[in-house]
């Protein structure tokens, strides 16, 4: 017979005593309860509480100043400015300043909130038994009472310095995001309404980089030109040529149907914007028999013998014409700028 089958009263004295000791042992999973609450120095010394209050207010004020510095950096530093900062090396002044100031603004709010909670808000642990999901009126009343007690213990209404600086920091931090909306793109202003073309500017051949003369343009040919003074190594060349690119063709004057086109031409030489009025693609396909030009992107077709009007495709309006003439040196020159914005329609057109 095993020891498990022997009645307890027949077990040896030593084994019976051990079994009894197990029965009276303490429950190892018993709830030890909450530790004794120890007050903080801020709880018993009002001067220490004031110091903590000033510390929290300083952090919130620092956040506001960092937000202002963020906005100032965005306005002050050009996007292409590079500076040396140890140990990072050569970095963008704009990116570095934006990252540092925004980081300080957010960190200061977090640090101020944490310091406020750890030193001034009540740190007494409160236990509450689980309750049904459906709250009874008494429970709701208790929640509101607890909320009011928590607000009172936090000093939110009593410590106005913390409250006001926190509101200031939280109100100003979103300004950093608002300022970043400026990076969605350049403001339209009236930049699209004008180009580098002006009265007296010579037409420069894009291939030879030499001024164009009327005899250089033969009937049926297509020539591309740029404004005098615009060099390919200029930092804004791509921006300017995207508006000022010009195509020049020579048509027999008798074949020109539009009267204004004829008046703005010189001996049948007409100059039109090279930028398609659909989505801004460069036009480069010319059919000399019909005097049609075709945009290779979406097949918008323009009739250069009839005011460059749209005869096919999604383009919304004709190509702008540049009025040209000949200067004293016998070179082709512009007699002004385009009379309307070049390229696709935009919201300022009118």
Output the keywords.
alpha+beta; Rieske_Fe-S_prot; five-stranded antiparallel beta sheet; 8 helices; 350 residues; 13 strands; Rieske Iron-sulfur Protein
The spatial strand order of the largest sheet comes to 3-4-5-6-11
Number of domains: 2
Got a strand count? 13
Rg value: 41 Å
Helical region count? 8
Order of helices and strands: HHHEEHHHEEHEHEEEEEEEE
Low-confidence stretches: none
Q: Structural class, please? A: alpha+beta
- What is the overall shape? elongated
Helix content bin: 25-40%
Strand content: 5-15%
| Biggest sheet architecture | 5 strands, antiparallel
State the distance separating the first and last CA atoms. 109 Å
Average pLDDT score: 86
List the helices and strands and how they pair.
Blueprint: H1 13-23, H2 41-44, H3 46-76, E1 82-85, E2 89-92, H4 93-119, H5 137-154, H6 160-180, E3 203-205, E4 222-227, H7 237-244, E5 246-250, H8 259-264, E6 269-273, E7 285-287, E8 292-294, E9 301-303, E10 309-312, E11 321-322, E12 324-326, E13 332-334
Antiparallel strand pairs: 1-2, 3-4, 4-5, 5-6, 6-11, 7-8, 8-9, 9-10, 12-13
Helix pairs in contact: 3-4, 3-6, 4-6
